[in-house]
Amino acid sequence: MNYLLYCIRRIDFKNWMRVSKNVAKRAHKPRALILLDMAQCGLRYQIGYNDYDWDDFYMLNHKQRKTMLSRGINNKIIAKYNNREFYKYFDDKGLFYKTYDEFLHRDWLDLRYADQEDLKKFIEKHSEFIVKPADGHGGADVEKLSASPEDANELYKKLLDKGQNLVEEIIVQHKEMGRLHPESVNTMRIFSFFDGEKGHIVQAVLKMGRHNAITDNFSGGGLYTFLDNDGVALYPATNSDGEIYEVHPQSGTDIVGFKVPFIKEAFKMVVKASAVTPEMKYIGWDVAVTEDGPVIVEGNNIPGVFEPRGRFLKGKPGCLVRYRKYMDI
């Protein structure tokens, strides 16, 4: 109820009217009926008007709607299963890297605890590298740089001034993953749940970048689709604007049927990682795939809400069915 009241207070009514108009046009239904249904779905399923649009809620019957993961339900899961005292292990990427180092399989440096000489030694080994803020989100301020050891002193100060205090080795992705979008490291968001004894894979999403972006973040224009248990893409990809792509708009690679290499190894790695901080039971792991196998990019203690578009479900249930296998929600 608190989340519902919070959402009501924050409603952008002008945007709600715009979204309802677009949905009514696609659904071939009166706008008044769509507005009424949006309001009812907000109360009944805790689904916001944007998610109503992105998830094609107007295409779903009541039985299906009950199985869709909403932001309200996702927030309840996080509040119930993730201990806030341990958020720091994920909010601070430097602390995350230290805690989960065995799963990273790459060199990294936290400039908050390293000096110019450490950076110089790092650059001697890696002339090209990635820099990012330890508290960054959504791919913001992530850059690919190149430097020589002689640049270390000046670069050290510059990076600290910009808050880009993490320096890490570039992940060279598997050539098959590069077929999707070679400019970015295309990852999976693998959702895990630790039940106190062992970890479980709840679902897996394939993400891919667009244009010249070096990250695949949804908030930065990236695309995503869903994977089955064998790592095969089930549906066309979509983006934050609701556009749908059966092939990648830049690379021309077919998305439906694309198979992620090393998927079983990736699932096994995530299950193991899920037990490291048992106080954080519900995590979304960003996992890249190299020629040698999977590597963890980062973990998300507040996993985003990913659901297949209603038009793809064709009568099948949404993600909550799998969530309820492991969680009491």
Can you offer a commentary on this structure?
This protein is α+β, with helices and mostly antiparallel strands. The protein folds into three domains: 69 residues, no CATH class; 138 residues, ATP-grasp fold, B domain (D-amino Acid Aminotransferase, Chain A, domain 1, 2-Layer Sandwich); 63 residues, 2-Layer Sandwich (Dna Ligase, domain 1), CATH 3.30.1490.20. Helix content is 36%, strand content 18%. It contains 14 helices and eleven strands. Strands 7-6-5-10-11 form a five-stranded antiparallel beta sheet. The protein is globular, with a radius of gyration of 21 Å. The relative contact order is 0.15. The mean pLDDT is 94.
Give structural attributes.
329 residues; alpha+beta; D-amino Acid Aminotransferase, Chain A, domain 1; Dna Ligase, domain 1; 3 domains; four-stranded antiparallel β-sheet; 14 helices; 11 strands; 18% strand; globular; Sugar-transfer associated ATP-grasp; RimK-rel_E_lig_ATP-grasp; ATP binding; ATP_grasp_subdomain_1
Briefly, what is this?
This protein has 329 residues and is of the alpha+beta class.
What is the string of helix and strand elements?
HHHHHHHHEHEEHEHEEEEEHEEHH
**pLDDT below 50 for ≥5 consecutive residues: which ranges?**
none
Q: Rg from C-alpha positions? A: 21 Å
What coarse outline follows from CA principal-axis ratios?
globular
Q: Mean pLDDT score, rounded?
A: 94
* CATH H level, superfamily name of the largest domain: ATP-grasp fold, B domain
Give the strand order, joined by hyphens, for the main sheet.
7-6-5-10-11
The CATH architecture designation of the largest domain is 2-Layer Sandwich
- Tell me how many strands there are: 11
| Domains, number | 3
Question: How much beta, percentage-wise?
Answer: 15-25%
Number of helices: 14
CATH class of the largest domain: Alpha Beta
| Topology-level CATH name of the largest domain | D-amino Acid Aminotransferase, Chain A, domain 1
The biggest beta sheet reads: 5 strands, antiparallel
Q: Give the class from helix and strand content and strand pairing.
A: alpha+beta
